[in-house]
Amino acid sequence: MKRGKAGRAAAQKLIDRARFVSFHGFRVKSMGDGACTLELPHHKRLERPGGIINGPSLMAAADCAMWLAIKGRFGMDYDALTSELNTAFLSPAKAEHVYCTARILKAGRRRIYGTAACHSRSGRLFTHHTVTYIRPD
Prior knowledge:
This protein is of the alpha+beta class. The protein has helices at residues 4-17, 19-22, 55-74, and strands at 27-32, 35-40, 47-48, 52-53, 81-89, 98-107, 111-119, 125-134. A six-stranded antiparallel sheet has the order 1-2-6-7-8-5. Strands 3-4 form a two-stranded antiparallel ribbon. A hairpin with a 3-residue loop joins strand 3 and strand 4. The protein is globular, with a radius of gyration of 14 Å.
């Protein structure tokens, strides 16, 4: 896997082409061996009543960040599938950019387990996620 700017650029190109996440406009902020941080830019279309960023967008950020963390560990051509995503909503993200950092905690023969956290630029926590991916046969 390419490191630094080259790895970030390859990951950004991948998510820019991926139709299933294009709606959100994610930006890759950092990527490394088993870790990734995405930015979810604030858009009015992501707000629910009251100006709060909707939960499904935060969950999509966690899932996408983990997907890229896996690619950061195993290579951009490697694929794995979401098996389980658990989310705890801790505080609202209101009319601001959201950052989501995912980390692989354990990569076994069949399952890859990690966590993701959506937070503000200053580190205020919005959500905590546990994520399990399964390696395809």
